[in-house]
Amino acid sequence: MDDRLIGRRSFVVSGLAGVACAAAAAAVPRAALAITRGRPGRRIREWQEAFSNDPLALEETTIADLQAAMASGHVSAHALVEQYFARIDAVDVRGPTLRSVLERNPDALSIADGLDAERRSGRVRGPMHGIPVLLKDNIATADRMQSTAGSLALVGAAVPRDAFIAKQLRSAGAVVLGKANLSEWANFRSTHASSGWSGRGGQTLNPYALDRTPSGSSSGSAVAIAANLCAIAVGSETDGSIVSPSAACSLVGLKPTVGLLSRAGIIPISHNQDTPGPIARTVRDAAILLAAMVGPDDRDPATAASRGRAQADYTIGLDPGGLRGARIGVARKHFFGYSDVTDRLIADALEVMGRQGAVLVDPADIDTAGQFDEAELTVLLYDFKEDLNRYLADLGAGSPIHTMADAIAFNSAHRDTEMPYFGQELMLQAETKGPLTDKAYRKALDRCRKLSRSEGIDRTMDRYRLDAIVAPTQGPPWLTDLVNGDPSNQPGSTTPAAVAGYPSITVPAGFAFGLPIGVSFMGRPFAEATLIRLAYAFEQATHVRRPPTFAATADVNTSSH
């Protein structure tokens, strides 16, 4: 969901990580394990010093790095799981205490052992073989982990099967390392929630400035990857929930076309806008993760449109010169002018694109931007009730709740743990909605589709013969505020592509006061390969991402760099 509709950008659930295995705990530096009290600034500095010498730091390692290490025999998938568990314990549970990982997969080590045995026998399934991946906690896994969307109401509810994309990842050889925190119910519970907070996990922190929002709702997925707690992660988006936290954490976040990846087994908001997608530190890793999840699924009819349009390998077109000759439109109206430092960084980004040979069409505005937010909210409220009730009904008799009404009642009965800071206004509004045949719903849906597609992105791209539209993803991350929630009407460029169901990708563009800023490329349906090519070329020309320092607050002594 887009935080600007509801005080938004918070679809990720925070939580305590599970208990590390003994081997993983043993791998954590003693000093890091001992640092649990004292003033936060001093504690974090001591933790940084202790952890900086840790050989298991895994800082900024890519899928290719990990594959090379496993192929050479220097490391096994089993050892990688142990090392990531150790880092989660040192960084997420102790140290800065980011609360980005809700729980660790108790079967991860045995799964890794099986994949190591396959490698020794000469079988390597592909680029994901043995690679640890975190899943947002709204993605169902039929194992010993929970699938709760961060809500205590779903703790103990057994899911009937893996989500389709979880099954695809397992088939590709990935090791599901654990579940990531998120904004509870993908930030579609309250009109003034704090991004990254969940009843199950608490408040996720941004590793670049611990007092700043991680954004959301895939907050935990983004924070964990930014802090190098796992190789890659999967988030989900309705409007902003992948690209927003990715931008806030100096990451690559890809929101695919609705229908490219199955939503079956993912706790929903809207069948019109929901999609899972990759979150990674590099464009190449995002492309590899995307390919591992594609495939038509009979349980999600929208994926039928992907037949013949999905690619088995999204890395084929990666080219440092991929911007040369590309026609890129700059959507200024509605997306610039709210942050001077953001505008300066995006101006620098545009200059880089021009030097790399892109043809910049500036401006190339989306004329309808900002005209369908109200209609979008209407659609999402109707969809949420319909889609969530269907999902919960599939859980069977063992689930603590079976309907949205049950979830509302649970929250009210457990106010101290589920609603200590904010309420459930959006759930209450959604529960009043009627069937999807209602005239109000059909009218709002038609308006959304027309203004975002034919009169929106399509018209702009046709008018200027564009390969992509570019805009700042959003401004610098704001201060976390559990009392008032996220500021209302946070500016950003996520909504047109989200409402249209079209793809978008955010890439790091730089830092303002030490806070990450991202730039987004959006395009036509199933144009992921094009967007990945453009984003990769920009990334290779800039290389602005740097790992977080776990600073207590923003660096007000600098502006942008």
Compile the SSE list and pairings.
Elements: H1 3-6, H2 22-27, H3 30-34, H4 40-52, H5 63-72, H6 77-93, E1 101-104, H7 108-120, E2 132-136, H8 164-171, E3 175-180, H9 184-187, E4 197-198, E5 202-203, H10 219-226, E6 232-237, H11 243-248, E7 252-255, E8 275-280, H12 283-293, E9 327-330, H13 340-355, E10 359-361, H14 373-393, H15 404-413, H16 415-418, H17 425-431, H18 439-464, E11 468-472, H19 495-500, E12 504-512, E13 515-522, H20 528-542
Parallel strand pairs: 2-3, 2-6, 9-10, 9-11
Antiparallel strand pairs: 1-3, 4-5, 6-8, 7-8, 7-12, 11-13, 12-13
Helix pairs in contact: 6-7, 14-17, 14-18
Structural class, by secondary structure, is alpha/beta
Total of DSSP H or I helical runs spanning 4+ residues: 20
Distance between the termini: 30 Å
- The shape, in one word, is globular
Q: Order of strands side by side in the largest beta sheet?
A: 1-3-2-6-8-7-12-13-11-9-10
Characteristic key phrases:
alpha/beta, disordered N terminus, about 550 residues, two-stranded antiparallel sheet, 20 helices, 11-stranded mixed sheet
Please give a structural write-up.
It is built from 20 helices and 13 strands. With 561 residues, the protein is α/β, with parallel strands linked by helices. The strands form 2 sheets. The protein has an 11-stranded mixed sheet. Strands 4-5 form a two-stranded antiparallel sheet. The two termini are 30 Å apart. The N terminus is likely disordered.
Q: How is this structure best summarized?
A:
The protein has helices at 3-6, 22-27, 30-34, 40-52, 63-72, 77-93, 108-120, 164-171, 184-187, 219-226, 243-248, 283-293, 340-355, 373-393, 404-413, 415-418, 425-431, 439-464, 495-500, 528-542; strands at 101-104, 132-136, 175-180, 197-198, 202-203, 232-237, 252-255, 275-280, 327-330, 359-361, 468-472, 504-512, 515-522.
